[in-house]
Design goal:
By secondary structure, the protein is α/β, with parallel strands linked by helices. Helix content is 44%, strand content 12%. The protein has a single domain, classed as HAD superfamily/HAD-like (Rossmann fold), CATH 3.40.50.
């Protein structure tokens, strides 16, 4: 009888000593989003739709023959013109959402693919006499590898002018805010379109709350789909800090879960 009770005690010991809670693996939070970017037909349709609409808007903007400045379009790079789903797969397998050293290796490989519709849109813009400028928050020391990627993908680059404007390339561009770089282009060009995957690719939104960011969308409602075109990116972006604050990836993940409305 005592032996039977002892066995039962060990068998059901979890009742008095519950198992430890599973450790947080923030990388798992990206699986669905990364898989969507990598394999869904819906993502490709969304990107093609955005670039097709941008092409029509470009044609309309070029009807203005009285403009004194030459036309240009400004694009973000990552998840706007080039896609990095394999990098996301790497960090997910490491149980992370981001890794700086891994990112540097990825950039050096020049292995990013073109977002669907991007190469065709850029070739068309160039054929119409429009200069594409790529404003990216990749670092200045990553520009050579980034240019190699763009050349590999057949994206137009200007032989006479630097059209790849990286973060910290100039002292006044040391911050992630892309506004000064957009202003730099606008000094000499008529910027007819902006394309990006993050609100900061269009207007300064860093550090703003969710409510303030929604206010910026409403205040610029007349630009979306006309001169501003946004690509879907559910993997990362400035929206994360607005909704989940700063802290470790696990802390942010918990806040995201807590913020979901029932």
């Amino acid at each position: 009888m005592k032996k039977t009770l002892l066995l039962l005690f060990f068998a059901f010991g979890c009742a008095t000593n519950p198992p430890a809670a599973p450790q947080c693996n923030p990388g798992l939070a990206l699986v669905n989003a990364a898989a969507w970017l990598e394999s869904s037909a819906e993502y490709r349709a969304s990107a093609l739709q955005t670039y097709a609409s941008a092409r029509k808007a470009l044609d309309e903007a070029l009807l203005d023959t009285k403009a004194s400045k030459p036309p240009a379009v400004i694009l973000d790079l990552d998840e706007t013109a080039i896609q990095n789903a394999p990098f996301e797969a790497r960090v997910i397998r490491q149980g992370k959402t981001y890794d700086a050293a891994e990112w540097s290796r990825w950039v050096s490989e020049s292995a990013s693919s073109a977002v669907p519709g991007a190469a065709e849109f850029l070739a068309y813009a160039k054929s119409r006499g429009v200069t594409p400028f790529y404003i990216t928050n990749r670092k200045a020391e990553e520009e050579a590898a980034t240019r190699a990627t763009l050349e590999k993908l057949g994206f137009p680059l200007d032989a006479d002018e630097d059209t790849v404007l990286t973060r910290s390339e100039r002292k006044e561009w040391s911050a992630g805010d892309k506004g000064p770089r957009r202003d730099y282009v606008a000094e000499r060009y008529r910027v007819i379109l902006l394309l990006g995957d993050d609100l900061n690719d269009f207007i300064a939104a860093q550090g703003k709350s969710v409510e303030d960011r929604l206010g910026l969308i409403r205040a610029n409602a007349d630009k979306w789909g006309k001169t501003w075109f946004i690509l879907p990116n559910p993997v990362y972006g400035s929206w994360e800090v607005a909704s989940a604050g700063s802290g470790t990836p696990c802390e942010q993940l918990n806040r995201k879960m807590e913020s979901l409305k029932p």
